[in-house]
Design brief:
single chain; about 260 residues; mainly alpha; 3 helical TM bundles of succinate and fumarate reductases; about 0% strand; elongated; binds protoporphyrin IX containing FE
Amino acid sequence: MSDLIEGYLGKTVDGKKSRLPAKLDYLQSATGLFLALFMWAHMILVSSILVSKDFMYQVTKLLEASFIFEGGNPLLVSIAAAVIFVIFITHAALGMRKLPGNFKQYQVMKAHAKNMGHDDTKMWFIQAFTGFAMFFLGSVHLYIIMTNSADIGPYASSDRVWSEWMWPLYILLLLAVEFHGTIGLYRLCVKWGWFDGNNPRETRKSLKKVKWALTVFFLVLGFATLAAYMKIGMEQAAAGKVGERYTPQAKVIQLDTVKKGRIA
Ligand code: HEM
């Protein structure tokens, strides 16, 4: 705790300049980079439903290490979600240091931002707002996944999205995470001077273009994915099959062959 106070004041107990704010900044960048890269992987994996239900099923089983444990072990997914949760909370706690502490501070910042009319300063506000929103939205999602890891799959996930009303939360979370993640990566590049060439102004321009392309790509992919889960969820509900678990095609064919063998 005293470390946090030291980081806040920027001075050690004996009045010397503290290195802690810089260390905390570094940790915030590192956790942010990890979470942004994790989200890319997460979105690609979740979008497996766009290929087929069977493919999403295979991906789920692979992540449950079905190559080691017969039928997969969902506990591994719970552990992964718990680790992500800790990193997520650490990143959010460090981010809180940067938020205005009261309305007066907020007004001063807003007035400065308006005066400057600077794109990157506007982005900072989007970053702060989406980060704050994700504190709630992300926590709900992570807790549910952590405690229901056995219920991930083409039908189980679709039921959660549609019949258990997760879709409104996912719409907001998707918007928040895609803006926050790509703006965050852009800011990391600018802050730590990655890709800085001879002309930093030009570099910023190009980085902004890449940032927008990534935001659009992941938003389109995310909404298409969400629509696919909603559609399956609706179909399951209309057929009165909420709670059913998916049987992969290979197993259906195998069972059919066994049955036919018995009849013949
Ligand atoms: C920072 C953390 C996370 C964020 C911001 C996040 C965000 C999201 C969003 C927005 C969706 C909706 C899908 C879409 O619209 O394309 C989603 C779905 C999903 N996420 Fe995450 N996620 C996070 C962490 C995790 C973790 C750690 C896991 C598993 C270990 C996970 C597993 C899933 C699954 C299985 C779905 C499919 C729908 C469902 O089963 O409920 N997520 N996530």
